[in-house]
Amino acid sequence: MDRFVFLTIDGLSRGAVYAAFALALVLIWRAARVVNFAQGAMAVAAAYVAYSVSASTGSYWLGFLVAILAGLVLGALVDRAVMRFVDHASPLNPVIVALGLVLLIQAVLGMVYGSEFRPADAPFSRSALTVGGVAVLSPYDLFVFAAIGAVVVGLAWLFARTAVGLRMRAAAFAPEISRLLGVNVGGMLTLGWALASGVGALAAMLVIPTELGLHPHAMDLVFVSAFTAAVVGGLDSPPGAVVGGLVVGLLLSYVSGYAGSDLTPLAVLVLLLAVLLVRPGGLFAPVTARRV
Amino acid sequence: MSATQAALPPQRNLAGAGTGGGDRPVDRRRGSTLLRHLAFALAAALLLLGVSYAVEPFRNFQLATVAAYLCATAGLTVLTGLNGQLSLGHGALMATGAYTVALCQNAFADRGMTGGWLLPLSLGAAVLSTVAVGAVVGVAAARLRGPYLAGVTLAVAVVVPALAVTFDGVFNGEQGLSVPVEPPPMSLGPYFPYERWQLWLAGAATLLALLLLANLIRSRYGRTFRAVRDDEVAARLAGIHVARTQVLAFVVSAATAGLGGALLAVLAQSVSPGAFSLTLSLFLLMAVVIGGLGRLAGALWGAVLLVALPDLTHSATELLTLSPAVAQRLEGNLPLAIFGVTLIVVMIAAPGGVQGLLSRLGRALLARWSARRS
């Protein structure tokens, strides 16, 4: 039972990170109809920037802040310098360009920082506090929950309660009409990319200390898990992304706890395939008629 | 939304015949497609034979590697270029073929079996096992569209190397397996260079695969592949079984990927999960995109680039005087960076790839020439 509680908490903590990362995917998908396959690489790039800043200033929190800023800037840059020029007539084109970005970013990181694993510090202790003899939460888990919770609430507030959020939604759903009504559609798209990439950078900062450390490929598997989370929830649904993230986190935690950590990639693949084959639109998508 | 309406801008195939071209009625007058492809293959084989004697052993080995990659890129061209299905998992399919050939060759060696027919048998087994895996993935893929398919195949590309580590009793973990390959037959003489033999093996296997692919592309099946890519609804209305066509395309391209992976394993005489990482899958995709989607000739350009670019950057970094650590970092990553940038630039500026540019250039020259004649 203790073990189950521990694995559940651990799974929720991981799941929160996947949820944030999936949320970033959903943000871009809703704004631009692009699944950003470069998201993992972009987030790792932001994490490396944080590593450099932290190493030179000695302050974790300054690095943390810079990582999120770097994520925002990188997202805007990718939209303005690359994605804007891609022909979106076929859904394959942006995917292929994003993969080109993956190769480029990982290569540049490898050239600048080398491809060995670098230790990444966690700002809080990762050993769990015990409540009544049962190991429950570590301070780091609390920090993860708080950070992701703040992001989720913040995004929900942005989209539901602010004028900018309204414009972003309008630009995503009806670009032509929004343009006629005076919405800067291109700007909203860039803002969407920046926000998504910033959230991705935050997720990377939270997950990398719990993994092997910083490495150009550190987010490859996290990306696959987060993509699965986004698909479980449905790529169009932000609440779905959060729930999907938690589901994937729990699944991975139970699989690695009860069956061995080597099997977690396989579990992700099986879950992804099962969801796509049974409900391709995700569990939260409204049932719509599909042509063909 | 039918997401996979067209793989990429539909390409007018004006390139030479036999390179996955369109269906021109003119061709009927030029006799059998099969005979023409056979003639092409024979000419290519003779050329390869001549080249294998003309160049040094290392170049022979490089050409053999090009041949192995060409197998995989040609299959991916059929899948992505002609059928509009994007696969990021072809590196994993190559790994399947490579591990099968390793297990077969080791099993033969353990039993003390020898003979020239063992290697073709292992290669055949590799193709069969990848066909099985490809069929499984293909059935799933036929139900998925665009980014979803990319996501699943990406997961396959990440998971399969991890499997080799998980079941390390069979696959020997990160270290991988060695692939015992017999020396060239004694009838070729005692001093026959091993690299030339490798080129012959890989070249023969690849030419056979290309011949089959070229014929498939020009057949009824090739036409249904393109019809499904261009418009699924129209294809279905025309009586094409869309899902079956997609599975067939996936299986065919999986078989060639498996053969390519098996050839790579035979050339390197070893196989390990590190050689079949996600990066390899991205490389393959990049190769077919840069070469020119939808044409087998484009697959050749892509395969040549895959082998030549690391070699060129190696030479370039040697020219610069760098500290060994910096040079090592550059050497591994510079080709990746160049590949990445090229992929982005080609997708944005020249979606037809190298082959598209070449055929456009050829047409321009031809137009100028005929204008001058009249």
What does it look like?
The complex is a heterodimer of chains A (292) and B (374). Chain A is an all-alpha fold and 292 residues long. Chain A has helices at residues 2-32, 39-57, 60-81, 92-113, 139-161, 163-173, 175-180, 185-207, 220-233, 238-258, 264-278; strands at 130-131, 134-135. In chain A, strands 1-2 form a two-stranded antiparallel ribbon. In chain A, strand 1 and strand 2 (134-135) form a beta hairpin. With 374 residues, chain B is mainly alpha-helical. Chain B has helices at residues 33-54, 57-82, 90-110, 118-141, 146-166, 168-171, 194-218, 220-230, 232-237, 242-268, 278-291, 296-319, 324-349, 353-373, and strands at 177-178, 270-271. Chain B is globular, with a radius of gyration of 21 Å. Chain B starts with 32 loop residues before the first helix and ends with a helix. Chains A and B meet through helix 4, helix 9 and helix 11 of A and helix 5, helix 9, helix 11 and helix 13 of B.
Parts with pLDDT < 50 across at least 5 consecutive residues of chain A? none
Largest sheet entry of chain B: 2 strands, antiparallel
Q: What quaternary form is this?
A: heterodimer
Order of helices and strands of chain B: HHHHHHEHHHHEHHHH
For the largest beta-sheet of chain A, the strand count, sense and barrel status come to: 2 strands, antiparallel
Largest interface: A-B, 53 and 59 residues
Alpha-carbon Rg of chain B, integer: 21 Å
Short key terms for the protein model shown above:
heterodimer, A: 292 residues, mainly alpha, two-stranded antiparallel sheet, B: 374 residues, 14 helices, 2 strands
Task: Summarize the topology.
The complex is a heterodimer of chains A (292) and B (374).
Chain A: H1 2-32, H2 39-57, H3 60-81, H4 92-113, E1 130-131, E2 134-135, H5 139-161, H6 163-173, H7 175-180, H8 185-207, H9 220-233, H10 238-258, H11 264-278
Chain B: H1 33-54, H2 57-82, H3 90-110, H4 118-141, H5 146-166, H6 168-171, E1 177-178, H7 194-218, H8 220-230, H9 232-237, H10 242-268, E2 270-271, H11 278-291, H12 296-319, H13 324-349, H14 353-373
Antiparallel strand pairs in B: 1-2
Helix pairs in contact in B: 1-7, 2-7, 2-8, 2-10, 2-11, 2-12, 3-4, 3-5, 3-10, 4-10, 7-8, 7-10, 8-10, 11-12, 11-13, 11-14, 12-13
